[in-house]
Design goal:
single chain; 183 residues; tt1808, chain A; 6-stranded mixed beta sheet; 3-stranded antiparallel beta sheet; 4 helices; 14 strands; 24% helix
C-alpha cells in the first residue's frame, strides 16, 4: 500500500529533490507518496513491455525509452516515476540532467496494489492535463491493458484488450505487441 507522508502541508520539487537517491517516493499533488518495490510479476510484465517498445524505437530511430525509476517533472507539486516512458526524437530537449522536464509522448503505468489509486486517478488527470499523448494502463492481475489517446487535452479510451490479441500504439505507428508476449 502507498503511504503519503504528511508532516508538512504541501511539498514542492525542492523538498523532493532533497530525498536520498533511490528513495521510493513520488511527489503527487504536493504529497510525498512512498511506494514499496513492486512484486516480481509486475517487473516481469514491465520488462516485456519495455523490451518490445525499446526494440521498436531503437530499430526505427524514433527517440528514447526509459523505465522506472526516472523522475518526470510536471510542476512544483507533481513529479512522478512512471514505469515506462517514451520521448520522441523531436522532443529529446525535455531530457534534463536530473529529470525529464515535461510530458513524455507515451507513458505506461503498470498497476500494483500500492499504486493503482494514483495511476488511475491523480496521475491520470495530470498526464492528461500536461499533454501526454498516449497513456497505457496495464493490469497484470487481470491481464488487461487500456490505451488512452490525448485529444484536445482529454484522454479518450481507444483500446481495451484482455489476455490475448495485439495492442497498437498511435504515437509509435506500426508498433503492435501481442498480449501473450506481455503476460
Amino acid at each position: 500500500m502507498a503511504i503519503a507522508i504528511s508532516k508538512k502541508k504541501s511539498y514542492t520539487y525542492e523538498d523532493y529533490a532533497k530525498l536520498p537517491e533511490g528513495a521510493p517516493y513520488q511527489l503527487i499533488g504536493g504529497e510525498l507518496v512512498m511506494v514499496p518495490a513492486p512484486p516480481p510479476y509486475h517487473q516481469y510484465v514491465s520488462g516485456n513491455i519495455y523490451d518490445a517498445i525499446r526494440e521498436f524505437v531503437k530499430k526505427n530511430d524514433l527517440g528514447q525509452v526509459y523505465y522506472s525509476p526516472i523522475d518526470v517533472y510536471f510542476d512544483e507539486v507533481e513529479t512522478y516515476q512512471p514505469d515506462i516512458i517514451f520521448i520522441s526524437t523531436e522532443r529529446l530537449n525535455i531530457i534534463g540532467e536530473k529529470r525529464i522536464e515535461g510530458a513524455p509522448d507515451l507513458v505506461v503505468e503498470i498497476l500494483s496494489p500500492a499504486s493503482a489509486y494514483y495511476d488511475l486517478r491523480k496521475k491520470f488527470r495530470v498526464y492528461e492535463k500536461y499533454g501526454v499523448k498516449e497513456y497505457w494502463i496495464v493490469d497484470p492481475e487481470e491481464k488487461f491493458i487500456e490505451i488512452y489517446q490525448n485529444e484536445g487535452g482529454q484522454f479518450k479510451l481507444t483500446q481495451t484488450k484482455r489476455a490475448t490479441g495485439n495492442i497498437k500504439s498511435v504515437v509509435l505507428r506500426d508498433l503492435k505487441i501481442s498480449l501473450e508476449k506481455i503476460f
